[in-house]
Amino acid sequence: MDYANDMYGITFDPAAKTSQYRQLVNQLRDRIADGAIPGGTKLASSRELADRLGIARGIILEAIEQLKLEGYLKTVRGSGTYVVGGLVWARGKAEAGQHGSPRQGDSSRQGSSPRQIGSTRQIEAPRSPDPTAGAEEPGPDLSFAPGMPDLSLFPRRAWLSCYHDALEYATDRELGYCPPVGSLRLREAIAAHVCEVKGITADPEYIVIAAGASQCFSILASLFDPCKVIMEDPQAPFVRRVFTGLDARMTWVPVDEEGIIPEKIPGNGAHYLYVTPNHQFPLGGTLSAARRVQLLTKARETGSWIIEDDFDSEFRYGGKPVAPLQVMDPEQVIYVGTFSKILSPSLRLGFMIVPPGLRIRIKMAKLRWDFWNESLQQKALALFIERGHLARHLTRSHRAYRTKNIHLASRLESSMPGIWQILGNATGMHLVIKPVNGSDVNTRMIAQELRKNGIQVPTIGEYCRENRAFEDALILGYGNHTTGELDHFVDCLAALTQPEKLQR
Length: 504
What we know:
- The chain contains 16 helices and 14 strands.
- The protein is of the alpha/beta class.
- It folds into three domains: 3-83, Winged helix-like DNA-binding domain superfamily/Winged helix DNA-binding domain (Arc Repressor Mutant, subunit A, Orthogonal Bundle); 179-388, Type I PLP-dependent aspartate aminotransferase-like (Major domain) (Aspartate Aminotransferase, domain 2); 392-502, Aspartate Aminotransferase, domain 1 (Alpha-Beta Complex), CATH 3.90.1150.10.
- Helix 2 (20-33) packs across helix 4 and helix 7 runs parallel beside helix 8.
């Protein structure tokens, strides 16, 4: 087949809500994934593509750079741009695994899912475990625990205006009970948002609003008794607490600097594979295209649903956000998003984009957890998104976090050359520092000494279960700190890494 002359079967829908850039990226990615554009294919030049497709060359170049970033394309100097091999992903062609192949369509009959091991819970939903359990009071003067956004950036006036209008113009119906799956208006606003920012095409009917990401995980855990989950190691402690609070059985799979290692996933399967592919928590890596294909293939083979926790990948500093796993296989992946990390932890609103085969069961489970949702806050958030406030806030926040990221990394390198290896600073609101091989740095001693000075710095070991490869690393959540506070921390850390200190 003459792929260049065919222009890879790409067409543009002028009525689509997605931009030409997003349509081009999604179509090229899909054609590589289904083998329509084989590995090793040399792409036509950007000028030829622009001329043949009738779009601006700048859009072509931007799309190519994005797919190079995601690992689907590579450029050979002096030769051209080529499709990376080994990325074919047979969506919709699941192999029957231990828990059965993925379902097509909905089912409301309890126990009908072939994935199910044991019966669906018929009991009243327990209380969701407190994600802050165990926190010390009072806290340290300066905490570098990850996950806290810069609250000074929160657009209070814009939010107040949206909330005021949500209340003033609310209909009698809107002041009543909100549907258990959430306000339709908010679900439509979220669908438009994730389409523009993440490249996800989602029907609002498959979006479920919840009281934060923690409730999403609780709902998912309640579908099976006992629930079996494969977890990344290290991982977010609050996620572990949610699943253990519902008596889930967990299996731990090690991660490296890139993310989860698919070859380490056991073949006996589980109900869920929990992953953070776009920003592994806490190490900060981004899963390559090759590993994403391996992960999806593994999930298909074992009959497991994938829970994709995409908590802060909007803040990516080396290009546009990488497309979520959900884009590759919406029938296999449960996408979980939250507004707590990008706006404020006090805004207890999260959401799931659920596969067709789980829609009815998750909807019924949500009914057991919440018969109603807080409607005014949902309407306010919908207005906040519709009026462009969220987009502007993300732009402003991205700029601020990038500045802090660069400042902190630069200070660490200039103040302590050859002492620390910086990991995971391409995305998000935290980075990880690990002593270089051969150094005498004792991170536990350093963390203890910093604590005496009112500075809390977690070690990666606090997030590990069995994987000890990174236990001596420190995690630095910089999102809610000023550059002055970052400087103070670096000065204290540098003082503790002086030769005379290290020899003690």
